[in-house]
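=== How it folds ===
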Amino acid sequence: MIIYKSPEEITQMKESCQLAAAVLKHIEASIVPGITTDEINTICHDFIISNGATPSPLNYKGYPKSVCTSINQVVCHGIPDEYRLREGDIVNVDVTTFYKGYHGDNSKTYLVGKVSRAARELVNAAEEALWIGIEEAKKHSTIGDIGHAIQKFVEAKGYSVVREYCGHGIGKNFHEDPHVTHYGRPKTGAPVKPGMVFTIEPMINLGSAEIILLDDDWTVETKDRKLSAQFEHTIAITKDGVDVLTLID
């Protein structure tokens, strides 16, 4: 069941979303060769706590850390550890905050030092795919239209879209309806209506769309071990279009 939010609730949600966005901005200068993903986790955790919020992923269904750090071939849900970032890596940092009763969710893939042309182009395509999905949502179309627009763009560039993981509704709960897939058929799925708040977060692979789940039951990698990139925003549907709640002006 989709939980529609009032304009007042969306205003409240935006506070958490803006904090989540501020975390990504805060960590950016620290994404350099030599830092461990556990150190990234600590910096994010401390910033969230110091701003009166809590990190939504921590202890969520047993997840042991405050953010997700997904490196190179890791598609999503990478667990921060002692791995030190290396020149040429790409790393997605996924941040969700719980503040004043609402969750705010966003992620960004960072380039670590000088990266290959293939890595840079993949990351750029992942970010562009996110904005193509947001532009489609502005039309008050359907969830299937959003997925179709993203899929069409990504596959035309020779990349693939992960099927098993998707965007989601969000609010007082970390995950709500609807499921927002990043592939699909036009004019299918739930209509996009004012009051809906959900994430769009396409996971784009350099090679095959096939993935594997590692033994930790969290980390997801590309089966062919080629690169994967992702960007995410939380958006609210309004009568006038879309408010990107995690976008800092």
Q: What stands out?
A: The chain has one domain: 7-244. The chain is about 30% helix and 25% strand. Helices lie at 7-27, 37-50, 117-137, 143-156.
